[in-house]
C-alpha cells in the first residue's frame, strides 16, 4: 500500500533508498545531508532495512566503498553536500569512468571558503563534467520518485546518477508526499544484476592503464583505447535521456505520477517570456508567474529536471521561438557567467530566431531569495524596451546583493 | 479561518533553541495535513542557533499545494513560546493587522497590549507542570492555545498528533498539557482597526 505522510526531505530520501532496497550505504556526515544517512543507519540498526552501513572516515572513502560494492554487484548508495562532494571528486570521475550504477543524493549547499552551511547549487555545478547524470528535485515527492527512478536509470545505462535537492529548502522542511507501495517498487526496480561482477572464477582486467590507441586483446579482439572509451561514455550519456523518458513513462503507469522527466513547464504554452531554473527556485516562480499573468504579461517558468546529460535539443525546441529566456541560477562559473545560462545560450545558438537571454544569479550561500525580488526583476526584464549592448545583455545580474 | 482554496495561512513560531518550537510546528503541520489541508510546509529557519537563543520556524498551510518555500514575511499568526522573547525580538514584524498573537506568559492578558492584534495568552509553563511535565516543557502545551485561538484544527486531532509525536516521552501528560492550555487560554480582540485574521 502506498502511504501519504508528512516528513522532511532528508527522511523522504531515506525512505526512498529503503524502498529501493540498497544493500550498502557508506557515508560521512555533513550538513545538511546528515539526517538522511542517520535515518538510513537507524533503519538498518532496527532491522527494517537489510543493508550494510559502512561508517567511513571521509567522503572520498564513502564513494570508494560504494565503488567497491557496486563492482561486486551490490546496489550501493551514498549522500553528501558541498565540500564533502568536492572531497569525493576524484572518486566521482572514477565511478563514472568505471561505468558503475551508483546513486547519490547531493543535498545542495554552498561551498567554502568561507564556510556556509546554507543552500546554493555550486557544489553540483562544480562536478558537472565528472560523467555523472545530474537530476534536480523540486519537492519531496520528486525526491522520492527521482531516487527510485535514478536506481533504475543507473543500472540500465551503467552511469552513476546524482539526485540533487536543495539544502534546508527541502532537506529540513516538512511537507506532504506519497510513499509508493513496496511490492510495486520491487516490480519497477528489479534486483541489480551486474554482468561484470568481481568473481575470482572469472578474472577480468578492469580500468588498468589504457593506451591512447585501440589494440587487440589476448584473443585477437580489438579493444577500445582511452579516447574510444570516453567517447562511449559521452554517447551513452546522451542516449540516457531517452532511457530516462522511458523509465518515467513506466513509472507513471505504475504509480500515477510523472510525465515531466526532462522539462516541467508551468504556463509556458503561449508564453513570450520564459524563466528557466532548477530545483525549488523553479517552483518559487509559480506565484510570480500567476501574478504577472494577472497583469497581462505572457510569462511562464520552465523547470529543468535533468542537467547532465543536458537536453540540448529538447530545451532549445521548447524555447526557440519565445521572445526572451530568463535564466535564474544559484551558482556560476567564476570569471564567466552562470553555467546553466551558458549551456542554454549554446543550445539556442543554432536556431535562427533564438530569443534574447538574460542571466540572474540568486541565493548564493543561502542569501534570501525574496519572491518580491523575483517578481520585480522578471517584470523589469519583460518590460525592457531598449536592449543594451550585447556585452551588457550577456552579463549576469546579481539579485539581492548587500554591498 | 476561511475555507478559501487560494487562502494560505502563515504561522511563525518564536522560541528558544532547545525549547521545541520546531516539534510544535511539526505536530500542527501533521494535524492540519490530516484534517484535509493538502498544502503544508514547515520550514525551520537555520542560523547559528544555540540553546537558549531566540529561534523561529515557518508553517504555511493551504488547501492546495504550496510552491513558494521562502520564509514567511507576513504571518497571519505568531506563536511565542516564551514571553521574555518579546523583549529581544520584534515578534510582530510583518504580522497582518487583525492577526493573532499567541503568547506563553505568566502575566495576565491585560499586560500584553497589542492594539492591532488578537492576543491569546496562557501560562503554558505552569500548566505543563500541572499536567505532569518537567518544568520548561511548553511545546505541547502551546499547541492547545493555537487550537483554541486559531480555529484551524480541532483539539481532538491536535491531541492525537501530540500523542503520536511524544510516543515514549510522556504522551498522556503532553496531551493533558495541551488540553489544560486549551481550556485556560484567554483571548482579546484588537482594540483598533478591523479584525480580518
Describe the structure.
Chain A is α/β, with parallel strands linked by helices and 403 residues long. Chain A has two domains: 3-188, Rossmann fold (3-Layer(aba) Sandwich), CATH 3.40.50; 263-398, Rossmann fold (3-Layer(aba) Sandwich). Chain A contains 14 helices and 17 strands. Chain A has a seven-stranded mixed sheet with strand order 3-2-4-5-7-6-14, sandwiched between helices. A six-stranded mixed sheet of chain A has the order 11-13-12-15-16-17, with helices on both faces. Chain A has a two-stranded antiparallel sheet with strand order 1-8. In chain A, helix 2 (34-45) links the parallel strand 2 and strand 3. The radius of gyration of chain A is 22 Å and the shape is globular. Chain B has 197 residues and is of the alpha/beta class. Chain B has a single domain (8-188), classed as Pyruvate-ferredoxin oxidoreductase, PFOR, domain III (Pyruvate-ferredoxin Oxidoreductase, domain 3). Chain B is built from five helices and seven strands, in the order E-H-E-E-E-E-E-H-H-H-H-E. Chain B has a seven-stranded mixed sheet with strand order 2-3-1-4-5-6-7, covered by helices on one side. The A-B interface holds A 6, 32, 117-118, 168-170, 172-176, 280, 283-284, 286-287, 368-371 and B 26, 29-30, 33, 38-44, 46, 66-71.
